[in-house]
Structures are given as structure tokens and as C-alpha cells.
Amino acid sequence: MLVGxxxxxxxxxxAQLQVDGETLVDRVLHQMSLxxxxxxxxxxxxAPATSRRGVSWIPDSHPGAGPVCACWDALMWGRQHGxxxxxxxxxxxxxxxxxxxxxxCGGDLSELRxxxxxxxxxxxxxxxxxxxxxxxxxxxxxxxxxxxxxLRRLPQVVAVECPSMIDADSPQxxxxxLDGRSGAPERPVSENLTRTENALGAPSx
Length: 205
Hints:
By secondary structure, the protein is an alpha/beta fold. It has five helices and eight strands.
């Protein structure tokens, strides 16, 4: 999970905003766990953003350089730990549902599966193959780079509709998302989809 943004439009650290008695970062981590992701890593920030047990933390290699660099950091961590793919999510997903996380984990492991919300790509949320690093320059050349530029470099990209992966980048957006969520029916993870790739690519049995 990426937590290193400046939260300028929100006005305060998004990762630590409270929703229903828990921080956004812990809320997203909880849904990731429900989806069967067992190996969880938080990227960015000046210190670990959660006290949740079993969650690793790595700092941004280029603080303030944007989410593309943070994705690069996560993929490098995955390469160093011998994994094949990673689910990358932003922390500002207050309505996130575990079954949408499961949707990202399907398909060919060589594909970059990017979340889509009502037909619009919801970067950086997706299942990223660590092999994506072969098509990306070093992090220092990714400073200020957009995900649209990254898309042009990667050979296999698939959009996956994940309606709960709508980001809250301002207080108004957060309020609107939560209002919409309050009337939404519960959608539990399907029993036949409980075996997924974990957050760093190793199957969870």
C-alpha cells in the first residue's frame, strides 16, 4: 500500500484519517487481509503508518516524487524478496471491498491488471508483475512521471472494473464516497475466490 503522498487537497494526512473508528490505512489493510493477502507492505511516509501486526514498512527512495516512484520502490522490494507479482493499492480507498481486491488477483500473472472505476483507470491500484521493472527506468528518471507514460512502456495491461476503488482526495470526495457507501449492499468475498495471490505474489493457501 502506498501512503507517502502529501495529501495537499485533503488538508491532512489521508492515511491517518479516521473512518468508523479506524484509520484509512488500517481500513484498506483489513480489506486486503479479507481478500486473502497475507504478506502486506506499506510504502512511504516518514515512519510506519500502522501498528497492525505482520505489516512491513519501507520508506520512499525519493520522498515527494509521486506514486510512480513509490510503485517502483514496491516492485524493487518484491524483486529483492523473490516474488512475481504485487497488489498495489493507495491508502485513500474508504469504500474498498475485499472482492474487488480478489478481482485484481485473477488472470495471467504476467499482466498488469489495473483497477477501473466506471470505465476510468484508477492508478496506481492494480496487480503489478515484478517483471514490469524490465520496462521501467531507474526511480530517479521516474520523478514526476505519470502513469499514462508508464502505460506506454508495458506490453500487457488489462483493465478490471473495481467500483469500490474510488479514491478520496479531498474532504468533499470523502464525504460523497461514504454517503454512497452507506446505501450499498454488502458484497462478501465469494467462497470460490478465497485462494488468491498474496500482496507480494506468493499464493496463500
